[in-house]
Design brief:
Chain lengths: 599, 599
Amino acid sequence: MSSSLLLSPHDLRFLLYEWLDVEALTQRPRYAEHSREIFDAVLDLAQQVATDHFAPHNKYSDAHEPTFDGQRVHQPPQVKAALEVFAETGLLAGGMDESVGGMQLPHMVASACAAWFKAANIATAAYPFLTVGNANLLLANGSPEQIDTWVRPMVEGRFFGTMCLSEPQAGSSLADITTRAEPQEDGTYRLFGNKMWISAGDHELSENIVHLVLAKIPGGPPGVKGISLFIVPKILVNDDGSLGQRNDVVLAGLNHKMGYRGTTNTLLNFGEGSHCPDGRPGAVGYLVGAPHQGLSYMFHMMNSARVEVGAGAMALGYTGYLKSLAYAKERPQGRPVGDKNPRSPQVPIIQHADVKRMLLAQKSYVEGALALVLYCGRLLDEQKSAESEDERAQARLLLDVLTPIVKSWPSQWCLEANNLAIQVHGGYGYTREYDVEQHYRDNRLNPIHEGTYGIQGLDLLGRKVTMRDGAGLALLAERIGTTVEQARKAGDEPAELGERLQAAIDRVVTVTTQVWGYGDTEAALANASVYLEAVGHVVVAWIWLEQLLAAHGKEGDFYDGKRQAARFFFRHELPRTGPQLDLLASLDRTTLDMAESWF
Amino acid sequence: MSSSLLLSPHDLRFLLYEWLDVEALTQRPRYAEHSREIFDAVLDLAQQVATDHFAPHNKYSDAHEPTFDGQRVHQPPQVKAALEVFAETGLLAGGMDESVGGMQLPHMVASACAAWFKAANIATAAYPFLTVGNANLLLANGSPEQIDTWVRPMVEGRFFGTMCLSEPQAGSSLADITTRAEPQEDGTYRLFGNKMWISAGDHELSENIVHLVLAKIPGGPPGVKGISLFIVPKILVNDDGSLGQRNDVVLAGLNHKMGYRGTTNTLLNFGEGSHCPDGRPGAVGYLVGAPHQGLSYMFHMMNSARVEVGAGAMALGYTGYLKSLAYAKERPQGRPVGDKNPRSPQVPIIQHADVKRMLLAQKSYVEGALALVLYCGRLLDEQKSAESEDERAQARLLLDVLTPIVKSWPSQWCLEANNLAIQVHGGYGYTREYDVEQHYRDNRLNPIHEGTYGIQGLDLLGRKVTMRDGAGLALLAERIGTTVEQARKAGDEPAELGERLQAAIDRVVTVTTQVWGYGDTEAALANASVYLEAVGHVVVAWIWLEQLLAAHGKEGDFYDGKRQAARFFFRHELPRTGPQLDLLASLDRTTLDMAESWF
């Protein structure tokens, strides 16, 4: 696998250095030890390890998915071997503080590094990146002792982590979980229940697995207000850090997925009596933070996980784009329009307008998504390092608004990119001899997990743009307005596209007010998914205008390509939002009015 | 598998009897032997056989795809068993003339019967339906002797057929095929070459396989004008009809596909010397019709095959819709908007607006596609049985225009329906424990085979709407105008939707003229795929208005559902065409202007 088929190093560096100016962060105390040379070195390291150790078994572990013999999970040995190399790089803790053994890299850089692994092998990469989320939650909410016991081995790559939210009867509806945690005299808890859809829930890739589990302490408030968070390890750890007894967390079964096959996805039973630590029933759990506050802790992790889902969708879209581009340059087929001479040689299919359309659409989706993901990384960096509390709070607010979009937009449009990558390949793209069909299957998970597309729509329209009297949407509009102002100053094409973007965001603001102005919550939220799609396109148009400005006045193929992709997005994509916003403005009730018996 | 999860018998009967009035055909000589009772009986038979013999092994043969041991192809025995039951029904020749052993059913009815098998198991159904296309081509262009030798055993279910067009170096570009056919003294030919992507190209499901092969006779004209058509059987047939020597057609390998796995897809070698009939090299072939006319014969078959592809896409979309509907009615999750009480019971997810949206969108796609497919069947019936030559010619012309649409529209939107069916299922939909992920994988083939989406766009914009001074588009607009006139007379909602449809088709006509008015063929065709998508949506809006009129004034859940789906299509779907037609009217050159080096 050539690394040139995973991501574009040129594009990454353009975004990081020419657009987001990550180097400027090295002026801030948190990142003062860093430099462009260090950033380049870790990016190169990520590219090399991803290319040499993750990409080669991507297809193999898809074709040889994990199996469970009733006792143990079996996976191809390449998975564990790759993760061992990954652990040695220290990249798992790339974004974490030096105080816990991390590199304290800017999130932008850590995110760009992570993208290489996701593009190379999303299923193998899931194990460490789930672990990062787990560790970050404990760093934010765990006790010093918990951090010492559980996070340190994660940073070293010895323990992996999971998040256990869903249950068979409660997928998206966490209020309805029934796993219970019974307090013990020694301050620990014993957990009983079943968790569904737990990624990396069992395997033999690490010495131990640290589950973060949502459960209810009996007697607590009903619904989401009674949810607490627990550390429940697969294997208990002794006081000296060595592994102790087996805890009563048992794999009940593996789910067999369409894609993403290399990541085990599990149904776990807690406290069903297969193992009884110290002879007593229940899986041993340790409360994180205060009782009944579990959901807010988990949402801290969940929000990061949502950005990660978008990043994964982007990475799959990106590699599929590059592979279809390489194919289109090599595959001769047909002749230009107007050349009817069958004796003239066939041309590479990239010369056909419709193939260019499919490539340019992919480019606009995947480069737009990468830029959006890195922009969200920048907002995390601002939260951690901006000088004033006001700047930090603004970054937090803007990321809050963008989270459902950065989760959903790549999940939709980079999946569409994979769809187009197959189409560019023709029949070959439909076969497992080529890579793109796997990317398409892998990517189909992303609109589902960590909150479905519909839930993200409700989050955006029902919460994010309304909270604090619409301060989040106002901030987004303000930031877009700033970009438009820069575009005006640049004149010419940026100015023209800027006017179109201004009109689009103005319309979003107006329609948002209209939708809520009717005073009918049910109707307002009925088309929340359409709202999410429309606002996502406006946001990505903004991100494209930002890229256009970063390329402005620069010469060369790369910059010409950025300009043309920006044009494509404004001409072919942004106009889609018109009818969507019209529909929303009309407070359309077509779906609400559909009676169940009419189906 | 309950048959209620494959297709809706109610919908089929509504379309056939209440809308298309298939009973009226029994007044015509060709169908005079038939009656509604007969139609109902064959529809019931198809439903029963599809449900009992095709659906049960759909998942199994996906998980156990065909294997090739170098000598023989192995498939699960259920496939052959199902095809034997199918042969007994006589449905393979349902639409064929009684003179060749067919039932001489209206195409509408034969198509509705076929839909059951496609919904139940598209991969197993492919074998007989490819055979039907093969047989129809020979009935139209073969000699009486050829028909006797090859078609009769196909009608009896003993021989299956293929179509061999593509080659490894020539997928969509048939001008570049290199398979050659050398004339022999006895009037037969010997073929040499390789054919790629041949569905059902090898198997042990039938006694023999009849390949229809495009090849070039040395010395003929270059390009497509030098292509001839040959019958090349896997096994030669003796004068008495018994099987003779093995012909030199050899399976070089199976393609391993993302979906549609139960249908073998093959690379075939002709005349490579594995078998040499009568000790001489080459695969024995028999010329069909005149030399160098092969492509026109093949396109006769190809046009039917394109309708069939659309029908298959529809069937997969339809069954996915019904399965997600059943799931949504049964799966409790969450509470209505505004009910924050966690002690209230969870509701079935069908009560959530966004789930209704996903179901209603599916309904509008799959019922729209089924209606379009049956309408095309009606046009075939008109071609065969209309009283005047003028009516027959009009039906032929309209079907010519609609062929790229009926091929492509379901391939795009019923695939999207499958996407939504997965989404309705949430995580379960992503697992192979449920059916919908397979439908999605199976359906992804349909935008590729029998002419890719891009090629259909070129066919529609570059040929079908321009041929004969735009007579085809004018006829389409006239038929739509007739429906709009009926809607005006019906008043109220039909009239209102009719005005919107009239505006849409007027815009299509105007934009078509504009696109060609610039005198720039390359630019005119650059966005042909966008044109195909826009015109497809306008056509399906018309088909929905037709259904609305057929339901007009009728009471009951079924008719209410039709009305609501029509509303959905006009409110949520038809407006998509606005920006698409704007783009076309601007003769957008964004893709054309993208240089290869800019990617």
